[in-house]
């Protein structure tokens, strides 16, 4: 539906007089993506992931710890970060477990519901599990 809407806007713009057309940069800004970043863990106990990412809208890095939630059976639930109508050409960031658990930490990056990147990492007794989600859209 979003692609149809974008095409409809493009066709409407092309039907206008030449001096009323948007520049390629202005047209590019009309096209946005929905971004979903999903972190999962197989740590059976309490677990959290420290997530850092660059926020282009404010021009700075964001860093925050996100604890995983668990269902009644003790299974971890996916942790989701969603950016609707993301208009930038790059997304970059990473997640890491701030302890030496050997449990797997995984990140999946979806753009408009399509999986475009997946990374997994296991920690050791001396190294934190770390996954990045750097991607050029």
Describe the protein's architecture and organization.
By secondary structure, the chain is an alpha+beta fold. Helices cover 15% and strands 45% of the residues. It is built from 2 helices and 10 strands, in the order ααββββββββββ. The strands form 3 sheets. A 4-stranded antiparallel β-sheet has the order 4-1-7-8, with no helix packed on it. A hairpin with a 4-residue loop joins β2 (48-55) and β3. The longest helix has 14 residues, at 2-15. The relative contact order is 0.21. The model has no long low-confidence stretch (mean pLDDT 86).
What is the radius of gyration? 19 Å
Give the overall pLDDT as a whole number.
Answer: 86
Helix content: 10-25%
Total beta-strand segments: 10
DSSP strand content:
35-45%
- N-to-C SSE string, H for helix and E for strand: HHEEEEEEEEEE
Give a short overview.
Helices cover 15% and strands 45% of the residues. It is of the alpha+beta class and 137 residues long. The mean pLDDT is 86.
């Amino acid at each position: 539906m979003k692609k149809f809407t974008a095409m409809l806007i493009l066709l409407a713009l092309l039907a206008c007089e030449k001096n009323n057309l948007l520049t390629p940069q202005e047209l590019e800004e009309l096209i946005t993506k929905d971004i979903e970043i999903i972190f999962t863990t197989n740590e059976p106990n309490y677990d959290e992931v420290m997530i850092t990412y660059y926020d282009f809208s404010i021009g700075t890095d964001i860093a925050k710890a996100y604890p995983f939630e668990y269902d009644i059976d003790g299974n971890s639930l996916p942790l989701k970060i969603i950016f609707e109508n993301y208009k930038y050409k790059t997304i970059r960031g990473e997640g890491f477990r701030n302890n030496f658990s050997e449990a797997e930490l995984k990140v999946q990056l979806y753009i408009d519901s399509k999986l475009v990147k997946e990374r997994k990492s296991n920690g050791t007794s001396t190294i934190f599990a770390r996954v990045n989600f750097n991607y050029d859209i």
